[in-house]
Write a structure and sequence with these properties.
Blueprint (H helix, E strand, L loop, with lengths): L4 H13 L2 E2 H8 L7 H14 L2 E7 L2 E6 L3 H17 L3 H11 L4 H16 L4
Antiparallel strand pairs: 1-3, 2-3
Helix pairs in contact: 1-3, 2-3
Length: about 120
C-alpha cells in the first residue's frame, strides 16, 4: 500500500489517538497545517478506499474511523525504500546518521549496546 506524506500524517493521528471522526482529524491536523476540512475528508476517503482505515461506528452525524493496518505493517514496507533512496541501500549509514544527529542519553546508549550485542550473538539463528 502506497501512502502520500499527507496520508501518512493522517494515519499517524489514527495510530496515536485511536478511532475518531474526520472533524477530529481536521482539528488536530490544522495545528500544524492550514488545510480545509474537505481536503482532510478527501484523504480519509482515500485511506478508506485503500483499506488503511475502516468505519467503526457512528456518533450522531459523525462517522468514526480507525486504523485498519498496524503502523509496523506500513513502516516495514516504507523503510527499505527510504534506505535505498537516501542511503544507497546501506542501513548502517542510516543508523550512524540517526545516532550522530540525536542526543543520546546513557540509557539510550546502553540499550543500543545491548541490542547490538544480542543481534551479533543471534545472527547465526
Amino acid at each position: 500500500m502506497k501512502l502520500s506524506d499527507f496520508e501518512l500524517d493522517v494515519m499517524q493521528l489514527f495510530w496515536d489517538e485511536g478511532p475518531c471522526s474526520a472533524a477530529t482529524i481536521h482539528k488536530w491536523i490544522t495545528k500544524d497545517k492550514n488545510v480545509a476540512y474537505t481536503t482532510v475528508k478527501t484523504i480519509i476517503d482515500r485511506l478508506e478506499e485503500k483499506g488503511a482505515i475502516q468505519r467503526t461506528s457512528v456518533e450522531g452525524r459523525s462517522i468514526i474511523f480507525a486504523a485498519a493496518v498496524k503502523k509496523e505493517a506500513i513502516s516495514t514496507k516504507l523503510l527499505p525504500e527510504f534506505v535505498r533512496r537516501f542511503f544507497h541501500g546501506n542501513s548502517s549509514q542510516l543508523v550512524a546518521h540517526l545516532i550522530k544527529d540525536d542526543k543520546l542519553s546513557e540509557e539510550d546508549i546502553s540499550y543500543l549496546e545491548t541490542f547490538l550485542a544480542n543481534r551479533k550473538t543471534n545472527k547465526g539463528e
